[in-house]
Design brief:
The chain has about 230 residues and is an alpha/beta fold. About 50% of the residues lie in helices and about 15% in strands. The longest helix is centred in the last third of the chain and has 17 residues, at about 215-230.
């Protein structure tokens, strides 16, 4: 490849150059078509994390659009690949676009120096025009974060688990095992209403905003597991 064609968009000499990674072929191809019609240059597409890393190394794009869960494990391979990109290709901006909220490695991604960064949840993207604007913001060194992702990041930054009382920690420990409030009540010999009160206090202390209860429980457990690993 002619080096003069690399990062043309970053220097204002041409369209923004994009590598697009998503393991769903239809969605990936549809987004690629929309991006091209909007004036972006999609230089490569990838269906898995190794393909993403290889494409960025080859094409040195202005920005990489990355799904969080990708083959081979369908867990956080995309997130880990994004971390590698931030380390090895800091001039390439990274925009995570996923149906899943994952906090593993996310603080490291934000702390690592590099070009712009973003994390958007697919179901909350208002429309393609807004997405294209967010993509340009990230490519220019900006940061675009979905509110739910931001809430999880705030909780992680503060490490609020240390603020919980011993009994609240007991409740959170059993919650991390996937137990319902009724099961927690039985296992800890607590009245159900007492468990419910502890759970509400845990959400408040962990600064988890109002949302679906299952989602809030997931965020609480993530904070607990992160504190255990630190």
């Amino acid at each position: 490849m002619n080096p003069e064609t690399k990062r043309a968009g970053a220097e204002g000499a041409g369209p923004l150059r994009v590598v697009l990674a998503d393991d769903a072929p239809f969605l990936r191809q549809a987004l690629a078509v929309a991006l091209r019609e909007a004036g972006f240059e999609v230089v490569a597409e990838a269906g898995d994390a190794p393909g993403l890393v290889a494409a960025v190394a080859e094409y040195e794009p202005d920005v990489a659009i990355v799904d969080v869960r990708m083959p081979p494990g369908q867990r956080a391979e995309g997130l880990r690949a994004a971390l590698d990109l931030r380390r090895d290709h800091p001039a390439t901006a990274v925009l995570l676009l996923s149906a899943h909220l994952e906090t593993q490695h996310l603080l490291k991604l934000l702390d690592r120096r590099g070009r712009g960064f973003g994390y958007l949840l697919k179901e909350r993207v208002a429309g393609f025009d807004q997405f294209a604007a967010d993509l340009r913001t990230v490519s220019q060194g900006g940061c675009v974060i979905d509110p739910d992702v931001a809430a999880a990041l705030v909780a992680a930054r503060r490490d609020p688990v240390r603020l919980l009382s011993p009994r609240e920690l007991d409740v959170l420990h059993v919650m991390a095992e996937g137990r319902s409030n009724s099961a927690i009540s039985s296992q800890l010999n607590l009245e159900l209403r007492t468990v419910e009160s502890h759970v509400r206090h845990i959400f408040v202390r962990l600064d988890i905003p109002p949302a679906d209860d299952d989602h809030r429980r997931v965020l609480a457990v993530l904070a607990y597991l992160r504190a255990k690993d630190s």
